[in-house]
Amino acid sequence: MMGSENDEDSHLHASREETENLFLRDDPLSRSDVNGNHSAVSTLPPPPIIVTPADSDPLSLPPNGSSYIEPPSYADVIFSPFDDNASDDCSSQSPISPSSSYPSSSDYIKITVSSPQKEQDASSSMLSGGSTYITYLITTRTNLPEYKGSDFTVRRRFRDVVALGDRLAESYRGFCIPPRPDKSVVESQVMQRHEFVEQRRVALEKYLRRLASHPVIRNSDELKVFLGVEGKLPLQMGTDVASRILPKQLFGEGVEVAAQPPARSGRDLFRLFKELRQSVSNDWGGAKPAVVEEDKDFLEKKEKMHDLEKEIINASQQAETLVKAQQDIGETLGELGLAFIKLTKFENEEAVFSSQRARANDMKNLATAAVKASRFYRELNSQTVKHLDTLHDYLGVMMAVQGAFTDRSSALLTVQTLLSDVSSLEGRAEKLEAASSKVFGGDKSRIKKIEELKETIKNTEDAKNVAIKQYERIKENNRSEVERLDRERRADFLSMMKGFVVSQVGYAEKMANVWAKAAEETSQYNRESS
Amino acid sequence: MESNSIDQSQTRNVMQSPRSPSSHPFLSASVTDPVKLGNGVQAYISYRVITKTNLPEYQGPEKIVIRRYSDFVWLRDRLFEKYKGVFIPPLPEKSAVEKFRFSAEFIEMRRAALDVFVNRIASHPELQQSEDLRTFLQADEETMERFRFQETGIFNKKPADFMQMFRDVQSKVSDAVLGKEKPVEETTPEYEKLKHYVFELENHLAEAQKHAYRLVKRHRELGQSLLDFGKAVKLLGACEGEPTGKLFSDLGTKSELVSIKLQKEAQQVLMNFEEPLKDYVRYVQSIKATIGERATAFKQHCELAETTKLKEINLDKLMLTRSDKVGEAEIEYREIKAESEEATIRFERIVKRMNEEIVRFQEQKTEEMGVAFHQFAKGQARLANGIADAWRALLPKLEAASSV
Q1: Shortest Cα distance from A39 to chain B (angstroms)?
Q2: Which chain A residues are within 8 Å of B365, Cβ to Cβ?
Q3: Which GO terms describe its molecular function (chain B) (predicted)?
């Protein structure tokens, strides 16, 4: 509708200064920036004591100095524009909630993803015709002490981001790790289309910023290396293959591992298969629940998280519908205004009677109000999007929580497998001992076997203890993460609600003023006997 | 408003309000109480039409009759035939989509439109004199049905009409013979301007009306989305502890409240803003029909004038040659001259009426649209204030929770 906007502007001379007066500055109630500037919350007037009745005739509002206090006017609260440019200062801060725990409030880390470039894969074979891929420039600015330095610039491709995600998943089991952007399976032609690349750039930036806002992960080696070390990414494949591959295969994510793990010792592979069998038998064991989790609290929490996720998804969808509806009504008001402006022009040009000129004037007033209201809806919608985006963001967070819970389940599975391993090995050792004791003088081959078995038992016991320690560690990570999450979520949702409501109030007031003016201008046509 | 109509009947300053002193003539009618009658495909709505008057031509101070939509159509058609040049008030459209035809909304809108229709006729200085109006307002249902039924046939065409039809054919033939292919049209600059204005106006109004209708829909859609959003947010609140849970619940409730306000306003916008715009469009279409009648009358007037001249020339020729056909020719000439004069009078009456009507129309429309705009603006302001108040009520609790 850009063309029609020009038409609107050229016709609304008188109202232009008025619209210019809708000056815009920072929204004091958005999530505060990292520097802890809880700006201007105190500039809002105190809540009202008496509120005007909702159905009052807007024309009969009492003049200033009336007997009751007028409600605070949020129309005067000015809202920041929502700029889609990710590099804009407004949205360049990490999406950090006010409740995130930082050692000091002046810490910051700012990550920007930009300048996508096409590059050739030097090592590709002649047959594949030289595959190209896109790299992105990643700039980091920080004053965190963990990062030795304040400015870093590297070029990374999406494959590197996948690797980063995988490394973090390994190292930070039990933590709520933000999910990385999807790998889209698309043709190479699509890969290089500008829109796709831009979408991916935005997604990467969001992802890295989320990582940087996680209090533990922001200081991880993996992230530091990713952000700061130039050249080809040196991140190695982790050793704990079994526990990583297994759940994914179980839950049908397919073979997502970038490279096949080298065949480890027979022991590991053996254990892998055993765990697979174990968990399968657990799942379809019938009466017994899958992974025997004694922690009732955990089970409750897990179920609660599941319900919460479901409702967040639903709310997120309804929020999208709401945004669309606001956009539509704004557009239609604009089109209506435009149609009346054309009518105004027409009547004025063709006027033979004064009644026509009067009508043209009435139409102009109506059109002006409609166009202004249309603009307000557009601005309101930007605000609504900004605030309700929290719901969309939390979809990612819920996925991260699921990941953390899955880590715990798979760690428990490992423990259980090892426990049953130990007991079955011990069973075999007993049998062998019993059998060998019946042979007088000792059964050399059997004794040897028993010794080997006892060696195996010891190793498995050690592995079991390690697994138990790991499980306990993950449990603790889970707990602290969930606590952090609950805290942050409460603050984020509160901030979202407040931002949403304030913008609704503010813009409703602005629109009321605009329409009241139009009603005033046509008050000679008031035929109501009220 | 004085108008000396050709039939020299007195026009009176007839008032609408029955509260005026009893010596003043008044006539008012209202269309009320829609009732669904009949079954299935033949079902229809009947309305009560209540007439209050002190005019002597009427059967008493008050009369109530039952009418249906096609009766109104009959009245409109009769007036259109008899009062050429007058902008006959428009009727609401014949029918809507089948399932919508009996919705309370549609019935009420139609009733209101029919009420406006009858009242416009009753307050028009010429139309209010109409015998057909009296029939419509007073005749019993059986009589009305007979009238209505008759109208649809060709059988009630009077002999004069047949003669006219014959002449039309004749003139077309002579046109072709004389090589006059060009249609006969009025081309005075003033009238050209008027025609252009009317046709352009219809386009502009139709567009405005289209957007007004869409706006009604948008109100409903926004209302629905807020309702769904409110429900979703309440469910979300049920998963959360305090204070988030309660706040979400309050937010959801408010959202549902705002939704209701929007639905109500949607209905108001439909009735008080979109419908007047639609009426405006219909009125312009009625004017176009009148323009058509004027064109027909003009053509007749021109052609008869031509024919008369030819007959005169012919007569003079015969008189010069002392032909024995003179007598016949003279009779013919006189007849044609009389007809031509009648046609000219008819045409001029249409022109006079139209000139008066256009002034009336412009004033009426400025008034009616002014009212519509005012109500629309007031409604929107009321809605916006209501929405602001509703959301604002949440802020104290939200503030309190944030400052913890």
Answers
A1: 13
A2: 355, 359
A3: phosphatidylinositol binding
Q: Which long-range contacts (CB under 8 A, 24 or more apart) does A479-485 make?
A: A481/A174, A481/A175, A481/A176, A481/A401, A481/A404, A482/A176, A482/A301, A482/A305, A482/A401, A482/A404, A484/A101, A484/A176, A484/A215, A485/A176, A485/A397, A485/A401
Over range A446-459, report the average pLDDT. Answer: 86
The residues, ordered by sequence, that sit 6+ positions from A387 with a Cβ below 8 Å of its Cβ are A30, A495, A496, A499, A500, A503
Mutation site, A38, A310, A321, A371, interface B, largest B CB count within 10 A: A321
What pLDDT does residue A44 have? 40
Q: Do B391 and A505 make contact, defined as CB atoms within 8 angstroms?
A: yes
User: Measuring CA to CA, how many Å separate B346 from each of B3, B248, B318, B343?
Assistant: 15, 74, 31, 5
Tokens 């009769």 belong to which residue?
B78
Q: Are A474 and A173 in contact (CB under 8 A)?
A: yes
d(CA A210, CA A389): 14
Please list the ranges in chain B whose pLDDT falls under 70: 1-23, 95-101, 151-183
Q: What percent of chain A has pLDDT over 70?
A: 65
Element (H or E) spanning B30, and its range?
Answer: strand B27-37
pLDDT computed for residue B387 by the predictor: 97
Instruction: Please tell me the distance from the alpha carbon of residue B175 to that of residue B310, in angstroms, as a whole number.
Output: 13
For the record, the structure tokens of A481 come out as 């993460």
Q: CA-CA distances (angstroms) from residue B212 to A337, A345, B89, B127, B200?
A: 10, 19, 22, 32, 19
Residues 459-498 of A with CB under 8 A from B: 486, 489-490, 493-495, 497-498
**Residue B374 is nearest to which of A312, A318, A522, comparing CB atoms?**
A522
Q: What is the DSSP letter of B273?
A: I
Tokens at residue B281, please? 């469009």
pLDDT one-digit tens code per residue, A352-376? 899 999 999 999 999 999 999 999 9
Q: What is the model's pLDDT at position B243?
A: 85
Structure tokens at A191: 């890969």
Is residue A497 classed as helix, strand or coil in its secondary structure?
A: helix
Please give the Cα distance from B108 to A186 (Å, whole number). 56
Per the listing, tokens 């166009």 go with A371
CA distance linking residue B294 with residue B87, whole number of Å: 12
Residue of B nearest to A328 (CA): B218
Reference B104, options B263, B267, B218, B215; nearest CA is B267
Q: B233 CB near a chain A CB, below 8 Å?
A: yes
Q: Pull the structure tokens for residue A449.
A: 């076997």
**DSSP secondary structure letter of residue B90:** P
ipTM over 0.90: no
Query: By CB neighbour count within 10 A (0-12 exposed, 13-18 middle, 19+ buried), where does B18 fall?
Result: middle
In angstroms, the CA A152 to CA B137 distance is 90
Q: Do B251 and A52 touch (CB under 8 A)?
A: no
B81 touches chain A (CB under 8 A): no
Q: Do B371 and A527 touch (CB under 8 A)?
A: yes
Residue B243, preceding peptide bond in cis (omega within 30° of 0): yes
Q: Cβ contact (<8 Å) for A314 and B236?
A: yes
Task: Mark yes or no for CB contact B240/A55 under 8 Å.
Answer: no
- Is B12 an 8 Å CB contact of chain A? no
For chain B, the 3-state helix, strand and coil shares in percent, each to the nearest 5, are: 70, 5, 20
Could you tell me the two tokens for A243? 């526990």
What is the 3-state secondary structure of A11-60? HCHHHHHHHHCCCCCCCCCCCCCCCCCCCCHHHCCCCCCCCCCCCCCHHH
Would you call A74 and B388 a contact, using CB atoms and an 8 Å cutoff? Answer: yes
Interface membership of B222 toward A (CB under 8 Å)? yes
